[in-house]
Amino acid sequence: MTRTEPEPAVAESAPAAALHAGTSDPRTLIMRNLRQSGIYIAFVAIVALFTVLTNGVLLSPGNITNIVLQYSYILVLAIGMVILIIAGHIDLSVGSIVALTGAVSAVLVIQNDQPWAVGALAAVAVGIAVGAWHGFWVAYVGMPAFIVTLAGMLLFRGLTLQVLDNVSLSPFPPEYQKVAGGFLNGLLGGQGYDAFTLLIAGIAVAGYTVSVFRTRLARIRYEQPVESFPLFVARVLLVAAVVMYFAWQLAHARGLPIVLIVLAVLVLAYGLMTKSSVFGRQVYAIGGNLSAAMLSGVKVRKVNFWIFVNMGFLAGVAGVIYSSRSNGAQPAAGNMFELDAIAAAFIGGAAVAGGVGTVVGAVVGGLIMAVMSNGMQLMGVEQSTQSIVKGLVLLLAVAFDIYNKRRAGTTR
């Protein structure tokens, strides 16, 4: 008998591998990615539910625009909050910082007749200073973030009352109001719709598709498990359909909100930072295993300091957006905002113990809260019932995180 030599294996190109790659254990892969993929399914399901319950009013062009305008500052806060939670910290003072930064801006612009940009920049600068204050106590003194920011919640609420002298200030000039209430429309025309809004949405979908495909290729290159290609395509098409429908509704209302552009830039920048930068990987390392991060040479104090500075910066941005939206500054502004931001992060997939979470997930979690609040308001549900529902959703999200951890522990 003659021996037949085996034919040499032909290496498959990366794009071809991306088409055919899967996992030998689909159940394991599904369970591993359920927390990240499930949030998008849950979002679509909640939108569909409230669309039916409100007879389609939820997805009307005008209402979608209102959702963007009314909850944009919560989404900005959620971006900073999820980064803190990934690192194993939390910030209970962001609502008070929003109030303080808005008050500083109002005093400069309304009382002292300064240009609107001066007020906005001063608000952001105050937010950064507050973040540095918190970062110092947490990173260099070693106090728990819970205690530091709880004290900050009281401290900066009191400073807000002093800055405003216990009275509300309004109105802001029209230029300042456009930060949260302005629109870009008519730049490319369109018959009954704004073509510019659709163009921007199309570019965003194309960028998202390229990004997730490159991520898939990278995971395959490092022999990490990925979902099957049909499931991957279905996920991309679902995201594209949701984004384009959302844009189509905006295009038939007042066009592209300026605040949505601000939010998109922040999501893109922080998404890249957390996924592709050394600093982002260090944040995950600190939250995942502090001792290992220190042994690996991560400068834990420095990273902790800057993530609180970043939270202050985003709280300042949110303060400008909120004061622009409300067209004034009030002593009680920002009340309970910290709880909304924390809920958005946890519902979006952040883990209680740290080390897990994404910026996009936190934004989707914030959108889920926004859709639920808006939908219940359209249905005429009482405020007390709305609080009960949101509290239960947060509780279930955290319970799901704990269940996943216990399940993972038993399967190792």
TrEMBL record:
What topology does the record note for this protein and the membrane?
Multi-pass membrane protein
Drop me one GO molecular function for this one: transmembrane transporter activity
Highest taxon listed in the record's lineage: Bacteria
Q: Where in the cell is it found?
A: Cell membrane
| TM regions (residue ranges) | 37-58, 64-85, 92-110, 116-138, 145-164, 195-217, 229-248, 254-273, 303-322, 342-371
User: Entry's InterPro entries?
Assistant: ABC_transp_permease
Any one cellular-component term (Gene Ontology): plasma membrane
**Pfam families, per database record:** BPD_transp_2 (PF02653)
User: Which of UniProt's keywords are assigned here?
Assistant: Cell inner membrane, Cell membrane, Membrane, Sugar transport, Transmembrane, Transmembrane helix, Transport
Q: Chief subcellular site?
A: membrane
Main function:
Part of the binding-protein-dependent transport system for D-xylose. Probably responsible for the translocation of the substrate across the membrane.
Q: Which PANTHER family match?
A: ABC TRANSPORTER PERMEASE PROTEIN YPHD-RELATED-RELATED (PTHR32196), XYLOSE TRANSPORT SYSTEM PERMEASE PROTEIN XYLH (PTHR32196:SF32)
Q: What is this protein called?
A: Xylose transport system permease protein XylH
